[in-house]
Amino acid sequence: MKDIESFQADNRNSDMVAIEINNLTKRFGNFTAIDGLTLTVKYGEIFGLLGPNGSGKTTTINIVSGLSKPTYGQVIVLGHDIMKNTRSVHAALGAVPQETSLYEELSAWTNMSVHADLYRVGGAHRDKRITEMLNLVQLYERKDSRVSTFSGGMKRRLALARALLHDPQLLYLDEPTLGVDVQSRRAIWDYILDVKQDKGKTVLLTTNYLEEANALCDRIAIIDHGKLVVLDTPAELKRRYCDTVMEIETASSASSQLLVQLRNIPGISQVAQDDKILKVAMSGNDLSATGKIITLVTQESNIRRIAQREPNLEEIFLSLTGTGLRD
Questions:
Q1: Which pLDDT score, from 0 to 100, does residue 85 have?
Q2: With CB atoms counted within 10 Å of each terminal CB, which end of the chain scores lower, N or C?
Q3: For strand 46-50 and strand 72-77, is the pairing parallel, antiparallel, or unpaired?
Q4: What is the full DSSP assignment across 21-61?
Q5: Which of 163, 161, 297, 321 is nearest to 237 (CA)?
Q6: How far apart are CA 62 and CA 98, in angstroms?
Q7: pLDDT in the model for residue 3
Q8: Are 11 and 79 in contact (CB under 8 A)?
């Protein structure tokens, strides 16, 4: 316990960046999973790492957490080189992996106790800390229940409580709300925001839910093919990459010819069709482009409704990484 406390005390209230990744490269034979990735995660922020399947997210997380060695480059976590001082860094990390890896046949309390023993959270402090964390995720009333009886959302909440038990300064959350219902997702979001706002912890988050990234993250890095595509706040990404989205509901679905014509209009960055609703992304509020869009659409079909709105992260994500499926 002394090692953990002394390490956290040295880094608490520090002005340093929590994670510094410099020219990170990882190769598996002839395949390059990460290609010269450089970015920093600020102390006390929720940082989102996004990308399509096969983009290099998991490989990056594995290296940052000390589970894999880079081919080139350096990763500094809380002021320590992860390859040179892995054990000390692990003492200050908490993780919620995609697979929660809970002991299903044991109770929630026993799961927490095992974790406490691993991280040397002992004595009277241990029971008090376990109680606090189970209360945080609203599972104290089920402390004696076997985890196998829990819903998916309850298991994710227990995994979060377990990750916070030893008071880590940095949390890795890999798809923290994967497979949970809407109510549980919102509850987990609240817990994550509380960890950041009230407890001052740094959170590194990977997610495929763009709504989740928008709701939680202070900054977002989108990577693809192992390279950094863009890094900014959600609001700035929306401003920079697509100022306006026009939604047009028509009496009939648009033809492929109309879609091509719309994409050829200057200032149009993306055209998509969902049944009878056209979504046209424009750079700025170009009235001439708006007029051309309406003219082309009315030549083919009657317009039932027109609306303009800000873009969402999903539209920006697709415009930067493409729409094709990845294996």
A1: 87
A2: C
A3: unpaired
A4: EEEEEEEETTEEEEEEEEEEE-TT-EEEEE--TTSSHHHHH
A5: 321
A6: 13
A7: 45
A8: yes
**Of the candidates 235, 185, 245, which has an alpha carbon nearest to the alpha carbon of residue 214?**
235
Q: Distance from first CA to last CA of the chain, Å, rounded?
A: 43
Please give the pLDDT value at position 242: 62
Please say whether the dihedral angle defined by the alpha carbons of residues 83, 87, 92 and 94, taken in this order, is positive or negative: positive
Alpha carbons 113 and 107: distance in angstroms, whole number: 10
Amino acid 243: pLDDT = 65
DSSP-assigned letter for residue 82: T
The pair of three-digit structure tokens given for residue 32, joined into one six-digit string: 């390059």
pLDDT along the chain (327 residues), means of 10: 44 68 95 95 94 88 90 93 87 86 95 93 89 93 96 92 92 87 87 85 89 92 93 86 82 90 87 88 72 91 87 76 55
Q: What residue has token string 């051309």?
A: 292
Check if the beta carbon of residue 271 is closer than 8 Å to that of residue 262. yes
